[in-house]
Amino acid sequence: MTKTRTMLAAFAVGLLTSTAAMAGDVRIMWYSDGVEGEVLKDLLDRFMKENPGINVILDNVSYSVVREQLPVQLEAGDGPDIARVTNLKAQSQHWLDLRPLVADAAYWDTNFGDQADWMRPDGSNQISGFMTQITIAGGFANKTLFDQAGVAVPGKDATWDDWAKAARQVAESQQVPFPMALDRSGHRLSGPNLSYGANYIGADGKPAPLDEGSKAFLEKFVGWIADGTMSKDVWVSAAGSTYRAAADDFINGQLVYYYSGSWQVPNFSTKIGSNFDWVATGSPCGPANCTGMTGGAGLVAIKYTKNPEEVAKVMDYLAREDIVKEFSERTLFLPAHKGVLAKGLDFKTDDAQAQAALNEFVAAASSLSDLARKLPGWHWSDTVYGALVTRVSQAAAGEMPLNEAVTRIDADIAAKVKDSGL
Amino acid sequence: MKAETPRPAGSGFGEAIMVPVRLAMGLVDAPLRWVQRRLGIGGMAAFFLLPNMLIFGIFVLLPFFINFAYSMTGGTALFLDDRTFVGTDQYARLFDCSNYIDPNSCTEDTFWTAVGNTAWFVVLQVTLMILFSLITALILNRELMARSFWRAVFFFPVLLSPVVVGLIWKWILQRQGLLNFALYGFGFEPYTWLNDRNWAFAAAVGVSIWAHMGFYTLILLAGLQAIPKDLYEAAEMDGTRPARAFWRITLPLLMPNLLVVIVLVLIRAVQIFDEVYVLTGGGPGTSTLYLTQYIYETGFATQLRNPGLAAAASILMGMVLVVLTLIQLGLGRSSEKKGSRK
Amino acid sequence: MSRIAAFIFRRKGRNGWHWTDIVTWIWLVGGLLIMFGPAVWLVGSSFKSPAALAEFPPTILPYVTQKATVEGYDKPLDLYDATLPDGSKAVLAEVRRIGVISQMVDPEKPGEIIKVNISQRTPVRTMAFATTNYTEPFTQFDFVRYLWNSVFVTVTATLITLVVNSMAAFALSKYEFRGRTFAMLLILATLMVPLSVIMVPLYSIVSALGLFNNLWGVILPTVATPTGVFILRQYMLTIPDELIDAARMDKASEWQIYWRIVLPLTAPALAVLAIFSVVWRWNDFLWPLIVLSRKELYTLQVGLSIYSGELNVQWHFILAMTVVTMIPVVLVFIFLQRFITTGIAGTGLK
């Protein structure tokens, strides 16, 4: 193998154009759900004006590149200098420790300390980066439909059952095809699971088989899909763990209650406009608590960089209080920065509904359960989410009964744990 | 089987570009004469073959062998050096079923679901593809106004990328799509076609036919046009009915082209991926999950990838393809001895 | 030769319409709709605003709600056809909506608020092409650069494909040597291995060669196409060996035979391969997406994928940029379709 590699390398010499990093270059791999790429570019342009020695290159990519291709690059000891990543914990061995490099480590600990554990190897005190955006899962109700049906929008302590009942009533009276929908995502599904008392984490820190809490909600969920309370469409619309959102149905007024999350706010604001009134309602309650899931995307520095000093400078700049504030206000993202949150934000939107919804999500952060806060920093979260989505959607499509799906979920997770050799 | 070859068509257009090329080729000639003296005329064959085989070897053959090596290793590491040898474990895992009739009893039930789906897809898609391209070729072979226009109409989708094909049809078949809109006009409620098992399957078959039919139609059309017309005239003289002429003259003489088409369609059908992946993502449930998507997702597109298992599955797929192709060619050769293939 | 066809359905056109004529025209017109309709729909959709794209029932052409500037209000207001409580109809501007009641004003008499139930009003719509779907990506991303990369990859790969494949085809058709059939079979066997299946090993080779994030990493793996070798070889088999023997008598070198005699005679097949290669390389998506992650190296196909986020896909940009990337293919189609369609017919695929 080594021999072939050297031969190949020799063959390559003739073809190589210079791909070596220039001194002072900092490459950021970034994906966008909306306008955040443009806002970041703007902020970086300002940075480069202040720091003429550092050339920051923003590589906008699709999310699939971050999810599928970046891990391969990292494993080859390659990759950009900074990346916006969602799978933070499982790849934490590749992140650079910024602690000795940043200007003021204490500032980072105070303001981003809560999520620092999501993106560093277990047991270290590494500063890997910061969350560009905190997402909080929660529900949206089409208030106009509720008003037209004369049904009261369930209040703060309403349970999943209350919402299901109310949504069904509204859908029936207004001739709307879908009472409820929940994104095709293991992360979203985990919110209600947790509120039904689920715990994915076993005693040894590895995934435990699905417990009664998970099974209780999954049974309810699949039942709702079968009787039409939950939209079946979004769950059966792909195989495997592909993410699918039901946002379009909500935007069209075809959906009464939509369980998604804070990131939908800018999307709804532009697409719904004044067509109907919508409100964010936090997460419904289960027997155990009223939690949703949290998560988000983090900006991390990568160990294999040739220019750690410059990388730290860029990170310091982007983590600055005023910059985080501006970034969040312009993108309508919930920031992670404690100081910014404490002082409050003035989201740059003239849509009062969006303002209200964002504030609702900021408030919902306080009702997150401890486990919900812990899961984003758990090595196996994505493994569990992936298995959940794959199998629950098969149950939803009627390909297998739920108890078999549960057995399969446990088996899939066990196989992945075994494959990883950890 | 001589289709009228538009030989001069290319040369006039090519003449202008050829001038600098001619110069370069001339310059290369002197050193190559020396090479030829060293290698001899026979050796020059190796020389001409070399560049293609080198690139082919590095970027096609080598990955194929590495893939084989992968199928013998375990773990999630990506680079072969970091992986552990596990022998035939991955194959054993694929074949680990308690009941070979029921894919749900297998450890890798998704793999077998994909195998089953692919088999159905291949049977239906190959049959319909051949049927549709044959009908289209027969129609285009008639005396038509603006024939080259019609030929082009059916060929057009071949030029689109699979991603665009998937995207176009997704935009038609989805809930807010054109099809529902059209039906809405007739008073039907909107329906999510791609979330219905049978419609999604039909869409996968239909869209793949839509995208590739033009290519095969042209191959068949070339065959039809090469059939000597005096055969038909003789048949007419004997009072043969057109249907009989079709079975007795057209079909046998079209056999060589038809065989090429069948083999190509079959290979492409087994490998179906891109356009269906964009269109349905394998859903609803797993009803349009095909083998290549399984391999792609297992080996590449999940957080905890298993390249070993994916490689084992791909080796199995390759073997099935080779066997199918050999059967096809064998059948073709025995059924058609008189055909003037080549 | 079309008289042959006329013969098969020989009653055609002699005594009025034969059933085969009807079938033919249904098939052709149906084909026209099914083959072109979807693409037209895509182009139409690409001009819709994000809100209009999500809308049902969709409209064939892009529409937006008409707005009017009303005295006393800062922003333009949406116009609606409203049925008033007394049953009369009027065009009103909506000031705000509270629940199911819309507060509206007559643009002529802005002082007076009229309350209308929202089921009693429909928006006044006007056609508007969302050209920002096109212009925004052009300003945001380095379109010229991506275009250049796409052109570079397409042209280079096609040239290398033509040279390398034709040389191989020459060797495989005009020389007798041991292992010839084996080499041919080996090349054809590649048809059995799609890219998505050998992606991981191919990736490790490309990265070991240092071709990662390099346009050559996109070009090289694609150029040794089995189809190309096959088409050219089949065509070259029809060139009489006597021509080559005569050239050898005249002391022509093998290289001269290749480019002076064989290549010119293979021109139609080369043209077909060139067109196909251009289309294939232009459309390549999966592999470039994996190899290229630096923006200065993006091809157009990779460039348009950046609008797929984790939680949201910006379809309006994707559709618009898809239409842009289709333009060259459509041009190839319009100007070279004669080459393609007659070329394939005349080429070795028989």
TrEMBL record, chain A:
Gene3D superfamilies from the UniProt entry: Periplasmic binding protein-like II (3.40.190.10)
Keyword check for Transcription: no
Keyword Signal among UniProt keywords: yes
GO cellular component: periplasmic space
Signal peptide: 1-23
Record-annotated membrane-spanning stretches: none
Family stated for the protein in its record: Belongs to the bacterial solute-binding protein 1 family.
Keyword field: Periplasm, Signal
Domain of life: Bacteria
Lineage, opening ranks: Bacteria, Pseudomonadati, Pseudomonadota, Alphaproteobacteria, Hyphomicrobiales
Annotated localization: Periplasm
InterPro entries associated with the record: Bact_solute-bd_prot1, SBP
Organism, as annotated: Rhizobium giardinii
Protein's name according to its UniProt entry: Alpha-1,4-digalacturonate transport system substrate-binding protein
TrEMBL record, chain B:
One Pfam family recorded for the sequence: BPD_transp_1
Transmembrane segments: 44-66, 119-140, 152-172, 199-224, 245-267, 309-332
Coiled coil (UniProt feature): none
Localization in the cell: Cell membrane
Top-rank taxon: Bacteria
Domain (ABC transmembrane type-1) ranges: 115-328
GO biological process: transmembrane transport
One GO CC annotation: plasma membrane
Keywords: Cell membrane, Membrane, Transmembrane, Transmembrane helix, Transport
UniProt membrane topology term: Multi-pass membrane protein
Principal cellular location given in the protein's record: membrane
PANTHER family registered for this protein in UniProt: ABC TRANSPORTER PERMEASE PROTEIN, INNER MEMBRANE ABC TRANSPORTER PERMEASE PROTEIN YCJO
Family listed: Belongs to the binding-protein-dependent transport system permease family.
Official protein name in the record: Alpha-1,4-digalacturonate transport system permease protein
From TrEMBL, chain C:
SUPFAM superfamilies, alphabetized: MetI-like
Classification via PROSITE patterns: ABC_TM1
GO biological process assignments: transmembrane transport
Keyword hit for Cell wall biogenesis/degradation: no
Residues annotated as transmembrane: 21-43, 146-170, 182-203, 215-236, 257-280, 315-336
GO cellular component: plasma membrane
Family listed: Belongs to the binding-protein-dependent transport system permease family.
Protein name per the record: Alpha-1,4-digalacturonate transport system permease protein
Organism: Rhizobium giardinii
